[in-house]
Amino acid sequence: MMLWLRKWYIVGPLVVIIMGHWSSLLHGILLKAAYFPGQGYVVTHASGPIIAAAFVYAMAFDFLVLILTGIRLAFPVIGRSMGQEATLTRLIFTDGLIYFLIAFLANLITTTFVLLDLNPIMSVITNVPAAMASTCVYIWRGW
Asked: What gap in Å lies between CA 89 and CA 31, rounded to an integer?
């Protein structure tokens, strides 16, 4: 949003897309689990299409943000000093691309497992590692 100077034609659609992503996440991932003595709770059913849709939506949103960032960096705003622009461009390319690549790969692995639908456990086994990878790289990006 900063790169686009909070232009309504960029911020508005991004807010709508973010709200759509949150509504898909808040819809809930439908899992069924059963308790087995000696093993604990085991996932017996996972709603693969809903999980896959949430991860594909996240990957598409990350890709859209990458494209918008790339467009702005390719055609910078006139009026900034060259030193500030060069520093900001270098920061966004290094941190932003690393974040996008790690988040995209983590979500791609998870989406692949969900779409393969091997069994209920394998459908959700990479959800937490993907979320952790995205969160850790997002926090690292903020430093």
From this structure: 43
pTM above 0.70, yes or no: no
Q: How far is CA 89 from CA 48, 71, 76, 79, 80, in A?
A: 39, 12, 9, 15, 12
SS3 23: helix
How far, in Å, CA of 1 to CA of 68, rounded?
10
Contact 110, 55 (CB under 8 A): yes
Question: How far is Cα 32 from Cα 23, in angstroms, rounded to an integer?
Answer: 21
For residue range 66-103, list pLDDT tens digits in order: 788 778 777 766 545 455 556 666 666 666 777 777 87
Q: Is 21 exposed, middle or buried (0-12, 13-18, 19+ CB in 10 A)?
A: middle
- CA 85, 87, 90, 93 dihedral sign is negative
| 37 phi, psi to nearest 5 deg | -55, 135
Integer Cα distance of 92 and 77 in angstroms: 15
